[in-house]
Amino acid sequence: MASMDGFILLILVMLPFTMPGETWFTLWGFVASWDGLWRALQIALKANAIVLALLTLVGSMEAITLGHALHRLKVPETLVQLLLFTVRYIDVLRDEYLRSRVAMKARGFRPSNSIHSYKLFGYLVGMMLIKAMERSERVLNAMKCRGFSGKWPHLDQMRFKPIDLLFGLTAFALIGLLLWVNLR
Amino acid sequence: MSEALISLRNIGFAYLGRTATLQALDLDLFPGERLCVSGPNGAGKSTLLHIMVGLLKPTTGTVEAFGQKRLGEKNFHDVRRRAGLVFQDPDDQLFCPTVQEDIAFGPLNIGKSKSETAAIVEQVLEHFGLMHLKERITHKLSGGEKRLVTLAAVMAMEPEVLLLDEPSNGLDEETTDRLVEILVSLPQSMILISHDAHFRAKIATRSLSLVDGHLEDFDPKCRHAKP
Ligand SMILES: Nc1ncnc2c1ncn2[C@@H]1O[C@H](COP(=O)(O)OP(=O)(O)OP(=O)(O)O)[C@@H](O)[C@H]1O
Ligand SMILES: [Mg+2]
After folding, report:
1. Distance of CA B114 to the CA centre of its chain
2. Which residue range forms the structural domain that includes residue A32?
3. What distance in angstroms lies between residue B12's CA and the mean position of ligand 1's atoms?
4. What is the pTM of this model?
């Protein structure tokens, strides 16, 4: 959540200055408006509410379950595979990165603001990209060895259960209630 | 002697811009054999297995598998199904999110139905004593568990020949013993690459070593290691 807030902070700070309206204060000749402030607060609250809802609904789930669920919901195959491969290999890549960092440290490298440091980080990033590409080739080879020919087979094991219906109905009822309270 | 399952003749191979890795290499694998190949790092052992299933194209020579000359990519589809390759790095091979999906990947690809596949998954996991890993997520397995699962995934395709690239790598003694037991009990012919002399001694019916780009009869340097 902090990362998202960091992302929109700039917009929030700018908004009071860019929205026309009743003057709140002036800073170096720029006018900040009350309307802008309200709008900024609204956005901040909304964004955080969305992220909180997402975290409780999706964040507590294995990313892989999410992938399978998206597949069941008929999200395009390519996107689902992209998600699943990312989940599968992000740790492998991270381990490779950390191993390289440890290896660099073990040989006395300390990051500093020097050409030498930047060059080494450049090598590190370059190596990571090449390794990732080579791995993707090896993974494709492994897939071919097991009869892959472009179409991904699925062992579909998710079922729509009564409990899902109950959850769906309850969620809709709550959202309906909120809407009603809002619109009344 | 009966027909060879796989025979390589006069194989030469070089990676782009490098000197030849394999040169004038001949190899025959006969039914019922467990052939161990050793050789220094970088000798080209993994390369050799990849050539056998057509993942790499040799610059010279011919690959004959299951009684047929194999040339183009199409020709090798059938070889890859009948000769199961277990890769050196399990992370390359376990690309599916969960263990059961990974094992199911092969059977589903060769046209087994979902219920048949589910039965195969159960049976293979049972055989390897890996039932407890069925629902686990592949990238969270330990190195040794990954190894065994890759072997199980290849066995699920019911190959006639096994090509194993350093299968005992990263296994503890107990698990290695279990692997030896499993491999010896299998009816399949296999080619095993291994740096572990004791492992080879327990499994091999024949040993070769890869030096200077071709295969030679194995001549043991360590007195514990019998060919
Ligand atoms: N993709 C590649 N591109 C260029 N050279 C490669 C590539 N893969 C391997 N090589 C080189 O080819 C040679 C043989 O590699 P190979 O992986 O077959 O060796 P190996 O016998 O399996 O070694 P190890 O015992 O370390 O697994 C090595 O010198 C290696 O550096
Ligand atoms: Mg190798």
Report:
1. 26
2. 1-60
3. 14
4. 0.78
